[in-house]
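Forgive a beginner's question, but might I ask you for the amino acids of a protein and the tokens describing how it folds?
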Amino acid sequence: MNQVIIIFMSKKFNVIIEKDSEGYFIASVPELKGCHTQAKSLDELMSRIKEAIELCLEVDEIFDNQENEFIGLQRISI
């Protein structure tokens, strides 16, 4: 009998969350080019961004395992 062993590796991603003028929450993952989604609630947004991350990782077979360290976020006025 053949056995299949599946190993799931955990990876953490930084998610930037914004709210637009129409009340939609928008999530973006800076480490993954083009990885973003939107939703009306934060719960739905988090579910959708997890799905978007999984899809981006499936498409991008050459994934850079180097993990960036999140330092912070600042808002500036010009």
In short: Residues 16-59 form a domain with the Double Stranded RNA Binding Domain fold (CATH 3.30.160.250).
